[in-house]
Hints:
The chain is an alpha/beta fold and 532 residues long.
Amino acid sequence: xxxxxxxxIGHVFRRAAxxxxxxxxxxxxxxxxxxxxxxxxxxxxxxxxxLGGGNTVVYAVVNFExxxxxxxxxxxxxxxxxxxxxxxxxxxxxxxKIEYLRRAAKLAVDRLGNRDTLSIVEYxxxxxxxxxxxxxxxxxxxxxxxxxxxxxxxxxxxxxxMRGVDEAKNALGGPAQADGTITRVILMSDGxxxxxxxxxxxxxxxxxxxxxxxxxxxxxGLGRDYDEDLMQAVxxxxxxxxxxxxxxxxxxxxxxEELGSLFDTVARDIEIRFSGTAIVRKVEVVGYDxxxxxxxxxxxxxxxxxxxxxxxxxxxxxxAPSSGRVDLGQVTVNYKTAKGGEAKSFSxxxxxxxxxxxxxxxxxxxxxxSAQATLAESDRVQKEQVKxxxxxxxxxxxxxxxxxxxxxxxxxxxxxxxxxRRKIEAINVENDQMSRAAASESEQKSYLKASKQxxxxxxxxxxxxxxxxxxxxxxxxxxxxxxxxxxGAYKGPIDGNYDADVKQAVEAYQRSKNLNADGVAxxxxxxxxxxx
Length: 532
């Protein structure tokens, strides 16, 4: 039996509620599942047939979906152990931020029930436990305390976060010890960690420790002045989600989105592993710097809610023989159901055919998987250009982005994939944004946060940040609807549904701006209305 090289890929998935996701029947090899599984997966290879007799690269696209096993029935959601960690530093006085924070926090409290546990920490340079962990009862008292939040002091972000972690952990041995309880710390900040522990590596270590104790952390960054790299690292190491809140008015809706996903959780404690055979010389998860085939990492996947769809790309360097069936390895998924905590697992073996017939290799190419590999690799290149912009090397970044767009255009001649075309459009728009970023510090901050947010989402297969189209739902669509309304092109509800009325409004707006009136809100359309 061939030796296997274990590579844990659980840490690489993030929320992708509106991800581009083909139907299960179209995606190649399905991971075995039964009717009661709440997490199901599918794998496809870009090259089911490879050129033998040397080293070659094979991409595996792993797609997942959270399944509501009792659709349409009235279900009791899992109890929630929630710790809110709220920034009350002096900068929260700007733009009415503190008032929007009060509203968002009270909205979160109102969403909880008597089976849930709540704790609230407020922080500036001091840490105050506003509300110790206890079952939710009469919410009037806690909301009155939230109303008294006022801005003051500096930002001891780590101290506040870890106090929230402590409360959530303590609750697991007390009021939140019921089976199936979902535990989450929500950290909100609008500034830099400038008091207490500020070293990113030390903070990441603390967050990983909290995750090992069963405490997941989501991070919400508000405005232009917080450290987006730190907040994203907190979420990724903490098994939660990262949100960029551009304006305080969006805060309550983002809190609502996060709570909604927790309430609809169907799978938790997820661990995904790829074990490659000896012929797989190197394995990496595209887009993640710390994933390779030389060690085993022990990171899991953040909880999955019903209907949520995610994808990840594995890049395997394979030393294939000249001919024959070649075993690459196995993808295994372990998880627990959110309700009841039942342990489940499924796996899928991967293999390719090796041949010296180049024409056969070309004929067997899977264009769907090849397109997803192309998009993920382009994101990796783009991520490096964003780093150059952050370092002030704008001209170099623009030159490389132009070359990337040209390379993608060449590859898309054979792929003929609409997603790749939209990505090229987005790269050209971001090239223009890089020029604006070079001329203004505030423009650069906005560009960096928005671009990094899109790349963060794309890592898990969610590409609606680059183009919104009929059928899409969620926060991004709400923002599009609001932008269209502000432009006088839309009079419908702000409900997050990209329906026929929204499509018609997009077409009308596109015609008014001499854009291609196709009803799809791509990067050029959104940028023209200041929404990209």
